[in-house]
Structures are given as structure tokens and as C-alpha cells.
């Protein structure tokens, strides 16, 4: 059986604040550009750099209906991702074409983000994927960043646990 794989994995910086749109059926989509750079020494020893820009599209996977719990990935991007943030994104490369107003054929290449990891190191960063809520470790940090109270969370006493002198470590 023959198999194929279409998967892009990028680490880069967000070029501008994400643009968020709603579809007619209530879905949400976020788009942003991600810059990746490489540097090398030229033939004369001078340092050179090249930056590539990648268009990233993030959909709320199966969400958008009223009453559903949790955040979709586009909602996470809207709430936490800002210009300059360092991100890891993963997803398939998609090519699209359409006719513009002047009836010209236009083409675009996009990364359809299925997984997102915030690498900026600010409070609120964490692992997110299109099928689940933010990881448990990221939820308290996100609440702390937005100033919201965390009720019923698993990690309410976590800072106190770090200060506890009595641990079971054998060293």
C-alpha cells in the first residue's frame, strides 16, 4: 500500500496580529503570517540572511455551535497570539486558486494549522491542537495572564507545592 504525507512544521515569528473572521455557518477562522529566517556566511565571509513568509490559516475544528465547551484553535489564536510572538505550527500545506474581481486567476499557498505551540515564554503559552482544549498545564497560566479567577482547577495550589520543603525525592 502506498502512503503519502503532507505536513509542514515551522518555528517562526508572527508578522502582524492575527485576522479573525466568522463564516456564514458560525465557524471561525484566524489567519496570520509567520516569518522563518535562515542565516549563512557568504563566499566573502559576510553574514547573510533570508526570511520566508508563510500564510497560516487556523480553523475552529468542528466548533462554533452554541453550547459547545472549550475553545477552538482559532479562538486560542485570537485570545493569545500577537505580533512578534514565536510559534511552532504544524499542519498540511494547501494550494488554492480563485478568480478575483478582474477575473484574473489568483493562487495562494497556506499552512492549515492543526497544532500550535506558543514559544514566546510569556504567561499563557502552551500546547494547543485543533481537536482539544488547551493543555491542563496551560490553563492556569492563561487565566493568570488575563486576570481571570480559576475555579475548580487542578492546579490552584500549585505555587504552594513548589515551596513545600517536604518532598519524596531520593536525592
Short synopsis of the structure:
By secondary structure, the protein is mainly β. The chain has helices at 73-80, 138-146, 158-163, and strands at 8-14, 19-22, 28-41, 47-59, 86-91, 93-99, 105-112, 115-118, 127-129. The protein is globular.
Question: If you had to describe this structure to a student in words, what would you say it looks like?
Answer:
Strand 8 (about 115-120) and strand 9 (about 125-130) form a beta hairpin. Strands 1, 2, 3, 4, 5, 6, 7, 8 and 9 form a nine-stranded mixed β-sheet that branches. The protein contains three helices and nine strands. It has one domain (about 10-165): OB fold (Dihydrolipoamide Acetyltransferase, E2P). The chain is mainly beta. The radius of gyration is 20 Å and the shape is globular.
Q: Estimate nothing, just give the exact number of structural domains.
A: 1
Using the coordinates above, name the CATH class.
Mainly Beta
Task: Kindly report how far apart the N and C termini lie.
Answer: 52 Å
Name of the CATH architecture: Beta Barrel
Q: Biggest sheet, open or closed, and with what strands and sense?
A: 9 strands, mixed
Computed Rg: 20 Å
Strand content: 35-45%
Low-confidence stretches: 63-67, 131-155
- SS element count, helices: 3
Structural class label: mainly beta
The averaged pLDDT comes out at: 78
Number of strands: 9
The shape is globular
Series of H and E elements: EEEEHEEEEEHH
Q: What percent of the residues sit in helical stretches (DSSP H or I)?
A: 10-25%
Look at the structure and name the CATH superfamily.
Nucleic acid-binding proteins
